[in-house]
């Protein structure tokens, strides 16, 4: 409650509870200033208003209605006491909030500044002075203040209203309020006007656009109330308004931003939800509904641990509580067995609760696992061959080497090559070898795909070995060459086999030559001798001579056969 000790130390202070519509406190001296007692004012809280001249009361009420919290205004006006004494008083009004009840309380500090007995001239002069001062206060307000008679014609407009719309008082005073209304919204003004006429004392709200003299539109917000005369009849309608164009634009931007945010939240594939400090769902998106299989109607307002007990004692609960307790964001990735899914989660705390984004990364995690499995198996396959496999980047630095390649380089130089080192600049390679390999790489880096045969060593005994080496450009996704892949296959055995085949072919050619030359002649002689033998008279003396010749020719054939056998199995390629 208000402190009486403080208030009692100030003369003539009144505290009025606007919510309860009653006086909480009336200070000393009220009877000396207003001519009424505290008891009378407690009993009839409108008694003070009855002392104020009617021409001032409406303006005073308008100023009180527009008074902002924790602000004050000082008024000067004239009253007539029940004793028929006319007084000029100053009235400082302040609006505060009672900390105990939360009610708005209007504090009034009043003081008499001048007093006169009933005198028409003096009263008239004082009233004019008071009215001028009150009008000055009204014109200094940033709110719109207007009055309209029962015919709908302007009887008063304040300076702020004229300034905002660009009118002069003579342009609208005495004219119907429709002159400052937008034609398509005139019905709104007419409806509010009629409601005020039909409901004296009721505050009628009105929100509509008003055009200024330049054609610009202003969003205005009004509170209209009818004013009654001493007979209780409506004599005027009073309006207090504000230019809310900027506020409406800001609100529109806020709504637009909120709508875009809503659209974004609903369109993302991440599960999104907000939980208040009591662990109740405040908001969820469509992705969250889908992944958990619950509509938001079953989620909003419910405690997360009650709906999803499977989250208890998991990294999710630990992270949520940690973010709330420490007011620090938490990010983590975890496998959630009940859903058989991986989630990458970010938790953002605020004073109202926590906001959570949970992305389903199951596909990515499985793809990574498969990629790792493939990589491990590919490396196992690559390292399970005696072929040498390696790659270099555009600077000829090693990117990858299999075990066979590393072993060969170590056998040649005594040092194992390392990833990132320059290829063939290892210890033990002369400059001509380095230049030679730089040229090979350069050809592939220029886009050429080719194969060469090189001689090397393959064991500690430095035995020569022959390799077929292929150079293949490695392309990035944008088509740019980013390195060279090399594959060296030992072809020593193949070359040896090929050499043996060549040697065998040569021997076969020699055999063919011997067969066609050396063997054909004695065979021809043998056939000729057989043809001239006397078969009818075997005892013909000439047959003996022919048989002797056949013996000589047989010996020649045997010699040629021995020569062919010698050439076939010994490799002696003596041509003759």
From TrEMBL:
Its EC number is 2.7.13.3. Residues 130-175, 257-302 form the PAS domain. It comes from the Bacteria. The keyword Kinase applies. Keywords: Kinase, Phosphoprotein, Transferase. NCBIfam families: sensory_box. This is histidine kinase. It comes from Mucilaginibacter lappiensis.
């Amino acid at each position: 409650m208000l402190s009486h000790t403080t208030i009692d130390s100030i003369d003539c202070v009144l505290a009025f509870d606007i919510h309860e519509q009653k006086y909480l406190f009336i200070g000393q001296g009220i009877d000396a200033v207003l001519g009424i007692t505290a008891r009378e004012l407690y009993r009839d809280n409108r008694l003070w208003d009855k002392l104020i001249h009617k021409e001032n009361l409406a303006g005073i009420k308008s100023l009180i209605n527009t008074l902002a919290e924790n602000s004050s205004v000082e008024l000067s006006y004239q009253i007539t006491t029940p004793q028929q004494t006319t007084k000029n008083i100053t009235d400082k009004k302040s609006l505060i909030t009672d900390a105990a009840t939360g009610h708005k309380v209007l504090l009034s500090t009043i003081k008499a500044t001048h007093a006169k007995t009933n005198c028409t001239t003096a009263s008239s002069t004082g009233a004019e002075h008071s009215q001028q001062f009150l009008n000055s206060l009204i014109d200094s307000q940033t709110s719109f203040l207007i009055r309209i008679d029962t015919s709908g014609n302007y009887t008063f407009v304040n300076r702020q209203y004229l300034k905002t719309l660009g009118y002069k008082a003579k342009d609208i005073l005495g004219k119907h309020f429709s002159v400052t209304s937008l034609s398509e919204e005139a019905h709104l003004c007419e409806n509010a006007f009629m409601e005020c006429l039909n409901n004296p004392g009721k505050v009628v709200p009105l929100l509509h656009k008003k055009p200024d003299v330049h054609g610009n539109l202003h969003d205005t917000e009004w509170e209209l109330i009818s004013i009654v005369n001493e007979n209780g009849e409506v004599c005027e309608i009073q309006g207090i308004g504000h230019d809310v164009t900027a506020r409406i634009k800001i609100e529109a931007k806020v709504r637009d931003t909120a709508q875009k945010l809503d659209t974004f939240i609903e369109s993302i594939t991440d599960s999104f939800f907000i939980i208040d400090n009591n662990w109740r769902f405040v908001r969820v998106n469509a992705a969250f509904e889908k992944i958990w299989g619950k509509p938001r109607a079953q989620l909003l307002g419910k405690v997360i641990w009650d709906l999803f007990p499977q989250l208890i004692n998991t990294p999710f609960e630990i992270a949520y509580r940690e973010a709330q307790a420490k007011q620090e964001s938490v990010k983590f990735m975890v496998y959630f067995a009940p859903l058989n899914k991986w989630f990458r989660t970010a938790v953002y705390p605020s004073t109202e609760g926590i906001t959570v984004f949970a992305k389903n990364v199951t596909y990515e995690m499985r793809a990574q696992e498969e990629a790792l499995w493939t990589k491990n198996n590919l490396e196992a396959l690559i390292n399970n061959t005696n072929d040498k496999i390696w790659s270099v980047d555009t600077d000829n630095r090693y990117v990858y080497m299999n075990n066979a390649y590393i072993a060969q380089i170590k056998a040649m130089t005594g040092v194992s090559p390392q990833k990132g080192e320059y290829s063939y600049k290892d210890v033990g390679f002369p400059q001509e070898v380095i230049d030679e390999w730089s040229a090979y790489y350069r050809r592939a880096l220029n886009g050429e795909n080719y194969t060469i045969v090189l001689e090397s060593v393959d064991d500690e005994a430095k035995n020569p070995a022959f390799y077929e080496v292929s150079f293949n450009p490695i392309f990035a996704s944008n088509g740019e060459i980013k390195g060279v892949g090399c594959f060296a296959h030992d072809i020593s055995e193949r070359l040896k086999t090929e050499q043996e085949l060549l040697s065998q072919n040569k021997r076969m050619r020699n055999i063919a030559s011997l067969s066609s030359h050396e063997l054909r002649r004695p065979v021809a002689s043998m056939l000729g001798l057989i043809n001239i033998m006397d078969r009818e008279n075997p005892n013909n003396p000439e047959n003996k001579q022919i048989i002797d010749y056949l013996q000589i020719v047989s010996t020649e054939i045997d010699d040629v056969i021995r020569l062919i056998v010698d050439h076939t199995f010994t490799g002696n390629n003596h041509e003759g």
